[in-house]
Amino acid sequence: MNILELSEQEILRRQSLDELRKMGINPYPAAEYPVNAWSTDIIENFEDLPVIGKDEEGNDVRETPTPENSRMVSIAGRIMSKSIMGKAAFAKLQDSKGRIQVYVQRDAICPDENKDLYNIVFKKLLDLGDFIGVKGYVFRTKTGEISVHVMELTVLSKSLKPLPVVKTDADGKVYDAFDDPELRYRQRYVDLIVNAGVKDTFLKRATIIRTMRRILDDAGYTEVDTPILQNIAGGASARPFITHFNALNQDMYMRIATELYLKRLIVGGFEGVYEMGKNFRNEGMDKTHNPEFTCMELYVSYKDLLWGMDFTEKMLEEICTAVNGKPEVEIDGKVISFRAPFRRLPILDAIKEKTGFDCDGKTEDEIRAFCKSKGMEVDETMGKGKLIDELFGEFCEGTFIQPTFITDYPVEMSPLTKMHRSKPGLTERFELMVNGKELANAYSELNDPIDQEERFIEQMKLADKGDDEAMIIDHDFLRALQYGMPPTFGIGIGIDRLVMLLTGKFAIGEVMLFPQMKPEKKAPQSSIQEWEAIGVPENWAYVLRKAGFYLIQDIKDEKAQGLQQKIGEINKKFKLNYEKPSLDEVQSWIDKAQA
């Protein structure tokens, strides 16, 4: 990278980097730095020194803090602010748990005659964002702030890019906030540094996953891994990502679900198996959908849907309590309670409740006609199940705020689900709706291999009609079923949506560390080779860019003397010492740009 492609602050930081090295200080040392305390722990466990008397105004006077009578700590972190006051300074240090003030006194860190560590290194060469390690004792300042009086200071890492400086005035108004979602998601590392609360969201995510895993492990179920690359995209109705497996010379699908492999393990003799991992669906992106998402799927032998609802609501109540200290969470002014039991409502009843239309016993054409009468966009490729799904999504889904099990789905909507034990045409399936969105999908799993094959065939008919989300027949899965699969309950829970619910976030990008983003847009600029083609040497091409001329045509209306002066100022400002081009040379560049 040419130095002129950097901002002025970046250039200055690199110059500081060079100065540190000239002083014999390694700005990126390899040795371990011994950390024995963290900011929040120091503050929470601080104990004031004993009172030894009263001052003239009657206030308590405590022992003077010293290394001998105070807690000695060794901490490390990033400099987030710095206030120099002559021979002493205050700085805020941010570690993995929070921030703490450190007091840096020249003679304390430079006990010998050489004061360069304070006068040059700390005051001039260290910037906001740099990592340092400090050893010292904990004390309370006159203003009451718990701080660390630094006795030793070590440079641990030099930051070459400046952090956004977020400012808050006395009234709490924030200026220059780093709050653009695209920037925050694309540069999550910066978001985590400067925006309070972002890290907390992901710590809560970790708590959710850890608690769920503990509950499943304690229940005796086995965590497993199944293939992400699959010959057939099965286990759900979704459009897959396709890639090519060079070693096998065949196209493969990135999995859209873990279901069919997990059920193979139930056939193989596992009583209960679960997997937490990524699924991939080549579909749209919005605030609640991301093509790459995390899901937990669980399959348990000899259980059914009724057991599954009981297990699910108890598990979610425990997870919510682990994250928030209670089984309720507030989202946008609404208190959502995960206290068991949850409401249970058949899907056709839900549609009838919201629209007045009873889908029970209606033909595909009748349902399609009703959808059209409501102004919905439906077409001939949509089967009965798809139409019912569209109706539910249009009129019902967003209305269920409190956790609600939507049950008894039509068979057309559930090609992998066991037929209802008492209601012909329906299946033993539920979807858990919370805050207007689906959180979980569960079945009494279909284990009749003949019925399963017939349903796969029906799915292929939908595919022939143009439904690109219809399932493909998985012959190996059918073969596994023919060896016999016990009665089984299965459930999938969207981890990202669960985290959104329990942290009160409304966009899935807020709970994914690195959501997929479109490529960054870059301002168009002529290449160095293109500049060289009109006679501009490489070094001067970078100078022209620094002066704001990104494209060759940008100089065509310039006067030679004016352009020479502009690039000369850049040459002088950054001490480049390039040989100044003559007016004739500059004019020839302009002439060729005009050609």
Automatic annotation (TrEMBL):
<dbReference type="InterPro" id="IPR044136">
    <property type="entry name" value="Lys-tRNA-ligase_II_N"/>
</dbReference>
<dbReference type="InterPro" id="IPR004364">
    <property type="entry name" value="Aa-tRNA-synt_II"/>
</dbReference>
<dbReference type="GO" id="GO:0005829">
    <property type="term" value="C:cytosol"/>
</dbReference>
<keyword id="KW-0648">Protein biosynthesis</keyword>
<feature type="binding site">
    <location>
        <position position="438"/>
    </location>
    <ligand>
        <name>Mg(2+) 1</name>
    </ligand>
</feature>
<dbReference type="InterPro" id="IPR002313">
    <property type="entry name" value="Lys-tRNA-ligase_II"/>
</dbReference>
<dbReference type="InterPro" id="IPR012340">
    <property type="entry name" value="NA-bd_OB-fold"/>
</dbReference>
<keyword id="KW-0030">Aminoacyl-tRNA synthetase</keyword>
<keyword id="KW-0436">Ligase</keyword>
<dbReference type="Pfam" id="PF01336">
    <property type="entry name" value="tRNA_anti-codon"/>
</dbReference>
<dbReference type="GO" id="GO:0000287">
    <property type="term" value="F:magnesium ion binding"/>
</dbReference>
<keyword id="KW-0547">Nucleotide-binding</keyword>
<dbReference type="InterPro" id="IPR045864">
    <property type="entry name" value="aa-tRNA-synth_II/BPL/LPL"/>
</dbReference>
<keyword id="KW-0460">Magnesium</keyword>
<dbReference type="GO" id="GO:0000049">
    <property type="term" value="F:tRNA binding"/>
</dbReference>
<dbReference type="GO" id="GO:0005524">
    <property type="term" value="F:ATP binding"/>
</dbReference>
<feature type="domain" description="Aminoacyl-transfer RNA synthetases class-II family profile">
    <location>
        <begin position="208"/>
        <end position="519"/>
    </location>
</feature>
<dbReference type="InterPro" id="IPR006195">
    <property type="entry name" value="aa-tRNA-synth_II"/>
</dbReference>
<dbReference type="GO" id="GO:0004824">
    <property type="term" value="F:lysine-tRNA ligase activity"/>
</dbReference>
<dbReference type="GO" id="GO:0006430">
    <property type="term" value="P:lysyl-tRNA aminoacylation"/>
</dbReference>
<comment type="similarity">
    <text>Belongs to the class-II aminoacyl-tRNA synthetase family.</text>
</comment>
<protein>
    <recommendedName>
        <fullName>Lysine--tRNA ligase</fullName>
        <ecNumber>6.1.1.6</ecNumber>
    </recommendedName>
</protein>
<comment type="subunit">
    <text>Homodimer.</text>
</comment>
<dbReference type="InterPro" id="IPR018149">
    <property type="entry name" value="Lys-tRNA-synth_II_C"/>
</dbReference>
<dbReference type="Pfam" id="PF00152">
    <property type="entry name" value="tRNA-synt_2"/>
</dbReference>
<feature type="binding site">
    <location>
        <position position="438"/>
    </location>
    <ligand>
        <name>Mg(2+) 2</name>
    </ligand>
</feature>
<keyword id="KW-0479">Metal-binding</keyword>
<keyword id="KW-0067">ATP-binding</keyword>
<dbReference type="Pfam" id="PF14229">
    <property type="entry name" value="DUF4332"/>
</dbReference>
<keyword id="KW-0963">Cytoplasm</keyword>
<dbReference type="InterPro" id="IPR025567">
    <property type="entry name" value="DUF4332"/>
</dbReference>
<dbReference type="InterPro" id="IPR004365">
    <property type="entry name" value="NA-bd_OB_tRNA"/>
</dbReference>
<feature type="binding site">
    <location>
        <position position="431"/>
    </location>
    <ligand>
        <name>Mg(2+) 1</name>
    </ligand>
</feature>
